[in-house]
Write a structure and sequence with these properties.
Layout (H helix, E strand, L loop, with lengths): L1 H13 L6 E8 L5 E11 L6 E11 L10 E6 L7 E10 L3
Parallel strand pairs: 3-5
Antiparallel strand pairs: 1-2, 1-4, 2-3, 4-5
Amino acid sequence: MSDAITSEAEASANRENPRKVREGMVVSVSMDKTIVVEAIDRVRHRRYAKTVQRSNKLFAHDETNDANVGDRVRIQETRPLSKKKRWRLVEIIERAR
């Protein structure tokens, strides 16, 4: 019984963080403690094998209201914080000029 508990503890210690991480541009900071990030995903078209860009807007939590429009940021998936907000700001990669 104790072997099962220790092996389970070791497995959880070795497990990588399964939360998704995305990079994108901040497109809106009009809400308090919330930023809207446009994340661009490049995928290959199934039939034509051409690279296609797909973008989606993600609402992310910014506790300190630190990000500005045009900043490149890294966001991470988190528990639902509101109706649309399921991401949080990890770091600002590059400031807007």
